[in-house]
Amino acid sequence: MRKTNRVLSLVLVGLFVPGLFLMSGCSSSPSEEEMMQLNTLKEEYAALQKELAGLSQEKSALEMELADKDAKLKKCNEDQQVVRQRIGK
Prior knowledge:
This protein is mainly α. It is built from 2 helices and no strands. The chain has a domain of about 60 residues. The longest helix is centred in the C-terminal third of the chain and has 56 residues.
């Protein structure tokens, strides 16, 4: 029983692998349509990379602005505590 299953498995694999190669095609060069799609994808990728770089710069600027405002808020809170201590509250 085990030998039968093993032989059957080997036969199926033996048929599947060559069938896979036949179905995948044997073209040695891409078609004109495939090249156009590739070029379109490359252009889209470049545009997305450029947009990502711009958004990263914007994020950095916003993070710096947030840090500056946090520092100002901390300074204001410290000044407020000093004033409260001086007036006795």
